[in-house]
């Protein structure tokens, strides 16, 4: 199924045909209407994309909003399900991981989750920036909505939002007693147990807690050890307290902890290596023959304090103080055999402290926010690269300390009743100190990972260096709103992702690695429209964009024996990205709604400078490179039929999502690159008239499609011809019962 362009056209044609009956508001326009549709009402969608509460139609930003309830009802396992509902977005579990997030939006993101590298699409949990992707594959519980902001958000969200931002917004407690229990059982002995409670302690104080336990057998088996492969064992909890002593003061303290003890994902071999059967691909893409073991543990924790003080009718002061940390102990078997041909035991840790102060102004004709931001973070780690056929190991270890300072302002001015202009500016300064140590050993594993008899060899990197990076990132937009239900806007924004140090850098192979790499920037132009039509039964969001991408940071990894894997980071050069997003939704009655979402991205390198064959002069190979994790087309279509049944509402929702061909790396890798594919889902939910009970059945990937979401490419005899693929989930069916008290 190449390119899927005919399929996308079919979806569009179907959407046009449905238009006579229904067509839909963008998921951007409202998945909050998912709940509203059940009751036949259409509520105003309120978002906080510009750090203040606004109607979605009023915000001159291309964005999507998906409610937690709609994700739960569709059987979504975690926030990676957003890529099936949101245009031009890639959210996936990183290769060799269970809970590390890979995010791309409009061709911009971060494929390499190693410590020290910065994400290109920022993740926020209740306005707290999550600096590291480990543990960032968030499960769906205690979440009110997820906002997906596309394009650079450098003014309000600062560092490393060059591709966009994903905001995970949890529910506020309120001052009423609430409790709920949700239990699910599904394919592969899936068991989900989620409990939530809110207890008011007087008129001004409420406390709440949410606990979730997820178990699931593996989609496959480790044929060497007999362990489950692609299983799930996650315990997550969130506690919070809200204090509202007066109408003008609000304080929230929240803590969360997630422990993932799922077995490591080793992937599966895609190519054989000679006649030895241990190197042959397995019959199931979910099986593995990995021999490195099944130990894996990922823990993340966080604590935040948010305070809001109303200084006057127009001024509000807000403070957000947060601390987060995480640790990972894992193993990755690159060769997928019982032998240590290419094995990588690894350990990562990170911590961060952030403080943000905001002053929000809400006047009759002027609205906006001014703020300052501070981040103090440390990311560290170590891993062995074991090349068993040579009896050698390369230890790579290091850490990066980051201090980031920023000041920002963003204001909207009502020039007339119809014309509004919005402008913002952010100054960011990052101070980074990186340390990298890389050494060869004779033996299988280094002393760091338990082999005390390993013989030390050549030190390949041992340096500490510091660099500072700073940037001004402006944003400006002009909106024309002839009425409350239509907004036509044009905007410009600059994005900035900080430079840094390559934690895999080999100072012998690439001596300049000690100098680090430069920041990358993007200039993005957008023209869009958001509207509600036909008496607010038809919603349409349309945005076209053009981006000029400069100095993109690209990680290149190649076998370099006997030193293991050589890595270097290129500031690749220049790229041009353009495309559009169309999100539509129609709700002609309380019994029917439909949605069509289409995204198109054309990403093309205009310059890609790199070193070829040991040369000392960079060569432009832009005609041989392509953007990774960026399908040209993404699309989703769904409808919901509902009716009154047995004193409640029964809703049936089938959906299909499509993604065209995807290249895993900048260099084409036919054995790994994923052809276009389609996923078909369906859900059936009955909710009692009081809303107290819900019974649901959700089926995902009904056609049992096999599709790769990541891979490693280390061909060659000494590395075991290790071309390894990682796959999305097979067909699953889950039944759920939920009760609210």
From TrEMBL:
Indicate the secretion signal residues.
1-28
Name by which UniProt lists this protein: TonB-dependent receptor
Question: Could you tell me which residue ranges the TonB-dependent receptor-like beta-barrel domain spans?
Answer: 270-702
Query: Which InterPro entries does the entry mention?
Result: Beta-barrel_TonB, Beta-barrel_TonB_sf, Plug_dom, TonB-dep_rcpt-like
Pfam families on file: Plug, TonB_dep_Rec_b-barrel
Enumerate the UniProt keywords alphabetically: Cell outer membrane, Ion transport, Iron, Iron transport, Membrane, Receptor, Signal, TonB box, Transmembrane, Transmembrane beta strand, Transport
Q: What is its main location?
A: membrane
Q: Kindly list the residue ranges recorded as spanning the membrane.
A: none
Similarity field: Belongs to the TonB-dependent receptor family.
Indicate where this protein resides in the cell. Cell outer membrane
Give start and end of each TonB-dependent receptor plug domain: 56-165
Q: How does it sit in the membrane?
A: Multi-pass membrane protein
**Highest taxon of the source?**
Bacteria
């Amino acid at each position: 199924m190449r390119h899927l362009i005919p399929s996308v056209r079919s979806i569009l044609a179907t959407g046009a045909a449905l238009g006579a009956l229904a067509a839909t508001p963008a998921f951007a326009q409202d998945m909050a209407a998912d709940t509203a549709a059940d009751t036949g009402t259409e509520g105003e969608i309120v978002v906080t994309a510009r750090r203040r509460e606004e109607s979605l139609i009023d915000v001159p930003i291309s964005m999507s909003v998906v409610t937690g309830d709609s994700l739960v009802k569709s059987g979504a396992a975690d926030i990676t399900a957003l890529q099936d509902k949101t245009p031009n977005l890639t959210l996936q579990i990183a290769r060799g991981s269970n809970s590390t997030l890979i995010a791309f939006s409009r061709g911009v993101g971060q494929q390499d989750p190693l410590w020290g590298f910065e994400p290109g699409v920022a993740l926020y949990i209740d306005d707290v920036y999550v600096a590291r992707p480990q543990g960032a594959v968030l499960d769906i519980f205690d979440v009110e909505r997820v906002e997906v902001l596309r394009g650079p958000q450098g003014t309000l969200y600062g560092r490393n939002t060059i591709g966009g931002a994903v905001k995970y917004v949890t529910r506020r407690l309120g001052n009423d007693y609430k409790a709920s229990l949700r239990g699910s059982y599904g394919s592969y002995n899936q068991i989900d147990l989620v409990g939530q409670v809110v207890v008011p302690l007087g008129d001004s104080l409420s406390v709440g807690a949410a606990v979730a336990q997820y178990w699931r057998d593996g989609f496959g088996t480790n044929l060497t050890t007999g362990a489950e492969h692609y299983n799930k064992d996650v315990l997550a909890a969130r506690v919070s307290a809200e204090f509202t002593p007066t109408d003008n003061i609000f304080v929230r303290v929240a803590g969360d902890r997630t422990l993932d003890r799922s077995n490591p994902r080793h992937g599966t071999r895609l190519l054989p290596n000679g006649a030895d059967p241990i190197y042959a691909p397995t019959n199931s893409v979910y099986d593995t023959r990995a021999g490195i073991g099944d130990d894996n543990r990922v823990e993340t924790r966080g604590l935040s304090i948010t305070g809001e003080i109303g200084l006057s009718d127009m001024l509000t002061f807000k403070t957000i103080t947060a601390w987060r940390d995480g640790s990972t102990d894992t193993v990755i078997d690159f060769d997928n055999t019982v032998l240590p041909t290419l094995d990588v035991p690894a350990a990562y840790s990170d911590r961060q402290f952030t403080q943000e102060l905001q002053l929000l102004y809400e006047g009759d004709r002027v609205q906006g926010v001014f703020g300052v931001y501070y981040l103090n973070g440390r990311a560290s780690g170590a891993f062995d690269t074991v090349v068993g056929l040579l009896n050698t190991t390369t230890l790579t270890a290091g850490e990066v300390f980051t201090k980031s300072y920023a000041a920002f302002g963003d204001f909207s001015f009502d020039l007339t009743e119809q014309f509004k202009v919005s402008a913002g500016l952010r100054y960011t300064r990052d101070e980074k100190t990186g340390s990298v140590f890389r050494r060869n050993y004779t033996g299988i594993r280094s002393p760091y990972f338990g082999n005390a008899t390993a013989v030390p060899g050549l030190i390949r990197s041992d340096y500490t260096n510091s660099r500072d990076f700073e940037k001004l990132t402006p944003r400006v937009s002009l909106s024309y709103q002839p009425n409350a239900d239509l907004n036509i806007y044009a905007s410009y924004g600059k994005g900035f992702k900080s430079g840094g140090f390559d934690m895999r850098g080999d100072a012998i192979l690439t001596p300049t690695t000690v100098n680090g790499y430069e920041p990358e920037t993007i200039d993005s132009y957008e023209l869009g429209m958001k509207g509600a039509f036909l008496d607010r039964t038809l919603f349409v969001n349309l945005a076209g964009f053009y981006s000029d991408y400069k100095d993109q940071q690209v990680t290149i990894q190649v076998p370099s024996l006997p030193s293991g894997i050589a890595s270097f980071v290129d500031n690749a050069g220049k790229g041009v990205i353009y495309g559009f997003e169309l999100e539509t939704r129609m709700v002609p009655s309380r019994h029917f709604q439909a949605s069509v979402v289409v995204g198109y991205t054309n990403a093309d390198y205009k310059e890609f400078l790199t070193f070829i064959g040991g040369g000392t002069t960079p060569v432009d190979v832009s005609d041989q490179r392509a953007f990774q994790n960026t399908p040209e087309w993404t699309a989703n279509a769904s409808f919901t039929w509902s009716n009154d049944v047995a004193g409640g509402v029964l809703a049936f929702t089938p959906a299909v999502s499509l993604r065209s061909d995807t290249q895993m790396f900048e260099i084409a890798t036919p054995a790994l690159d994923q052809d276009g594919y389609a996923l078909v889902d369906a859900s059936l939910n009955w909710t009692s008239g009081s809303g107290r009970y819900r019974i649901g059945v959700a089926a995902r990937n009904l056609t049992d499609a096999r599709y790769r979401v990541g891979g490693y490419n280390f061909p060659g005899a000494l590395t075991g011809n290790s071309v390894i693929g990682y796959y999305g989930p097979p067909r699953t069916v889950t039944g759920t019962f939920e009760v609210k008290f």
